[in-house]
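Something for you to look into today, if you have time. Could you write out one complete protein record for me, on any chain you like? The space below this message is yours for that.
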Amino acid sequence: MTRLHASLLLLTSLACGFARAADDDAPAAKYEPREHYTKYEYRVAARDGKKLFTVVYAPKDAGQGGKTYPMLMTRTPYSCGPYGVDNFAVRRLAPSEAFLKAGYIFVCQDVRGRFMSEGTWRTMTPHLDVKRTPQDVDESSDTHDTVQWLLDHVAGNNGKLGLWGISYPGFYAIASVIDSHPAIKAASPQAPIGDYYQRDDGYHGGALMLAHNYGFYTGYRPQQTPTVEPRKWHSFDYRDRDAYNYFLKLGNLDAIAASLAGPDGSQPAHNPYFDELVQHDSFDDYWRSRRLPEHLKNIRAAVLTVGGWYDAEDLAGPLSIYRAVEKQNPGVPNRLVMGPWVHGGWMRGIGQQLGAIGFDGKHSEWFQKQLLLPFFEQHLRGAADAKIAEATVFETGTNVWRRYDAWPPRQAKVQSFYLQAGGKLGSSAPTAADAADRYVSDPNRPVPFIAYTALGMPKDYMVGDQRFAATRPDVLVYETEPLEDDLTVAGPVGVELFVASTGTDADFVVKLIDVWPQDAGPEPAQPPRDKPVDVEPPTPAFGGYQQLVRGDPLRARFRHGFDKPEALVPGQVEKLQFELPDLNHSFRRGHRLMIQVQSSWFPLIDRNPQRFVRIRSARPEDFQVATQTVYRGGAQASRVQLMVVDPARAELPPAK
């Protein structure tokens, strides 16, 4: 070989090496779904003849040369648009880009009575255990008919279908697998509604979740279907920036319901959906027919239920659905995932922080890659066992994931904390029989649920600093000494209060709070300070932060049952028993446990006039001041009951 030839070979080799290095450094080409998928639109006939609008995005090579793919379906009341086969939105149907790249036939269906589907929409469609005629339809039957149609008409499917959805679509996902079609192999209901009246979106402890529902129903209204409108929800003008003042000025729920037209009258004065919600203010037949968990039977699909510990809308739903599937479908793979997320945060956020509280990691991405995709790959494509624990739950406080073989953990032991004299909270019950604390509750000056002005229901209220409430004379406060060791709580929180009122009705709100040490330092989430100012804003102090961990009310008229409203007898002692929703939280060494008790939480919940009247129509004179007494001694020792675990006995999941 000549020296010239050797030099040319060397130069060529170097050039190729530099080219490869440049290619390695170049950003990866953006994945474009349109290059890989084709969109189709169908009107699928249900057994009663109603047409259900269904969108299918199929891989371009589906059915070619025997190539098959599993189907993944979402059923929604919020639109499968944009409509038209040339308008693409397949990313909305795929839980993540990894699903798009893995290859699925994605299906979306407008549920009955919404957007392009015919029929009548109903809140939490009642399930019919017995169907005698083709006119007897529910979400299970609509899904069964749709799945069979897809199997018969969509080329290149492998005969297996999965369901998933968040919030209302989460409800449809789990309601669809009752008496499930054999082709449905997996379902992941995420933030699903289980019981709209009891601790999901509608009512908590018999009290209306006012701010959330009002905000939702300003935009979610009846439709004349089929229609592609509204393409987006109309903005609603409160003519105020403070929901506290806005609702207080409106008065009772009748007046609030009549305000949904907005100031310009562009919308109807009433929303029938909101009117229904307000009208059915006890657990009557309307709500009884819509309670889903008891109908979750004959499920033949694997179930992965997902929720967020800070889901202000549907925290209870995932937990009640997991328990019902577990109890009523022995042998069916049934898994629970609860993470540090707000409503749908595992898909719509990073999962790293909520308000002032950080979680030390990008937990949404970890969930999508390590749990959700492997779950569907296993059950729809026959991939390896995803090895998902019975309960994969994030432990707030320590910010680690735990794996348990049951939820609540089998090893959890109940530990009581009693309200004591001098605002103390301890494990021993006071002995003085007549021990009690009192406060005056004024429904015309209710306790706010946040310390700042806002409209709607801010997501960070669930970890909000409660120091603003602790200083009010109408809030009772009890706290422990600093903890000598971590205290980890896993499961629901039992509440047992002995109370009396000078009124004939009252709400009792109980909040469980994690009090940070005074030397905790500055608040982690500080606003940017990159602009010069004459006087800098104060640095938020995190020392002494009273972090809300859980809170819920009980409307005392429902103390004997949510279907049995009954007046209080003024001055008569009553025992109230209820639960705060589940948590998995570690109160760290040096922190304190705190309990706050109050009789309003506005406008998170509606106001109780403190007279036994029909609350929705209460007159101004019905809203009366009352003195509330909380007893804490002898046989009337008020307490909370925590399910305490040793987290060392839990298995940690694989590293993120």
